[in-house]
Amino acid sequence: MANSKKDKSMESILWSACDKLRGAVEPSEYKHVILSLIFLKYANDRFEIQREKLIKEGKPEFMLDSVSFYEQDNVFFIPECARWSYLMSQSKKEGLAIKIDTALHEIEIKNPSLSGALPDNYYSRLELENNDLASLLDKMNEIDLKKSDDQDVFGRVYEYFLLHFAIKEGKGKGEFYTPQSVVSFLCELIEPYDGSVYDGACGSGGMFVQSMKFIQEHQGDTKRISVFGQEKTGTTLKLAKMNLAIRGISANMGSKPTSTFQHDQHPDLKADYALMNPPFNQKEWRNNNELTDDPRWKGYLVPPTSNANYAWILNFISKLNNNGVGCLLLANSALSASGVEYEIRKELIKNDLIEAIIILPMNMFYTTDISVTIWIFNKNKNERVVNKNGVDKHYRNRKNEILFMDLRKKGHPFEKKYIEFTTDDMKEFSSTYHNWQEYDKYKDYKDIKEYCKSVSSDELKDYALVPSKYIEFEDNDVDFDFDINMREIQNNLKDLYIEDDNNKKKIKELMEELGYGI
Question: What pLDDT is stored for residue 417 in this prediction?
């Protein structure tokens, strides 16, 4: 895997190995089967590299099996029953699934930092044919970190699989993955060089991985970042922990997989940065009488049970410290939602917490084909100087100003039906934002038709944050409210029909319990 062409070939070969699972397990299970084996091979390769290093240093035999000599270099200790060489020697024998489960269990016992990260008796429960499982191991055996100059080869293979599983699962699924170009763009916007990063809907951990990659690409120090995450789905949390472990990223992911709303795992956190892509338009996220006095909505109305968008906003803001900044992805309907959400949005604007609203192109996400909004929140929009990775940045006073950007016509085709941002795209768009922010660069910023406009709070029309209300368009037919919202309105109507049907069923059941037939 010395060059990208060869790497791609290897990734494609591994992807084709998934065909061996066809009919044997549910498609939604493929990622768990494959990604756990990728982690197992990675952990073994790192262990073998460290072991060879200790031997070259002349360490005595008994030290080679001392956990501390591996932990000190952030390497997982692998007991004999979990070593890749042993598993390969057993691959053609019966009971391979049990041996793999045992290997993962023993690795977790020996390495407390992996607690809750690895699947428990997973392969035994799948009841895969021994030959199919052995074939998968043979494919994994073709990856050898010891022979590669690229130390992130496993990370990229893991990322490749997350991407393609997300695309394959498509709409209504794939919630575990946010497209890489989207996350990279968020990092370019808020530049999380050092401090703490929070994600309350972390999925497979992509926000944290891209934060670290951003720092590495800008020659920063990843040791100056600490990450805090939470994920509701147990299997997805395991994916995240493995994803982070493969990159050597330590993270506080809470004590268990659970709802950010009902069981906040970081109630006292005040982070420097936050990056989050929560479920869009989440319904029934709390019961009617639940969380009505939660401190996260102090100073605001309680977010409605019918939609969690503004609950995610208030949770997000509550996690930022007094200088905190973050990017939150939401469905476009949140920009002009009425009722309680309107009142909350009005207070957010009055409290001057919103710095920028950026509309993304349609078809950037695998779970929805609608356009999505980036909300940038900033707790300190005052003039000040901040050191970013050794460079002083002089931010101008942006109080009561909001930057609107419309990127719906931007981006490039990807995987036939999706859109992504290239490196040049991200540089161009983030430069517009930073030029608007920074005192020395503000002379280079200008409002551009159909692209961007800086708006004062006084100019906002009835506290709506729809960019097309402020950005000038040459073609009035290309208007946000029709072009983008129509499909979302249709989806919302569909949800309302389903909700109405469910309510009718509940009423019927209740009347029958009371002795009245309908």
Answer: 86
Question: Around Cβ 496, how many Cβ atoms within 10 Å?
Answer: 11
Contacts of 56 (CB under 8 A, 6+ apart): none
CB 421 within 8 A of CB 408: no
462 lies in a domain?
no
How far is residue 386's CA from residue 206's CA, in Å, rounded to a whole number? 26
Tokens at residue 32, please? 């768990």
Residue 429 lies in a domain: yes
User: Which residues constitute the domain of residue 127?
Assistant: 4-168
Instruction: Render pLDDT for 349-398 as a digit per residue (tens, 0 to 9).
Output: 999 999 999 999 999 998 888 889 999 999 999 999 999 999 999 999 99
Q: What is the pTM of this model?
A: 0.86
DSSP assignment string, 306-323: T--HHHHHHHHHHTEEEE
Do 184 and 157 lie in one domain? The reply is no
Q: At which residue do the structure tokens 């997000």 appear?
A: 316
What phi, psi does 317 have (nearest 5°)? -65, -35
Segment holding 492, helix H or strand E: helix 485-513
Residue 464 falls within a domain, yes or no? no
| C-alpha span between 205 and 159 (Å, rounded) | 11
25 Cβ contact partners less than 8 Å away, ≥ 6 residues apart? 33, 126, 128
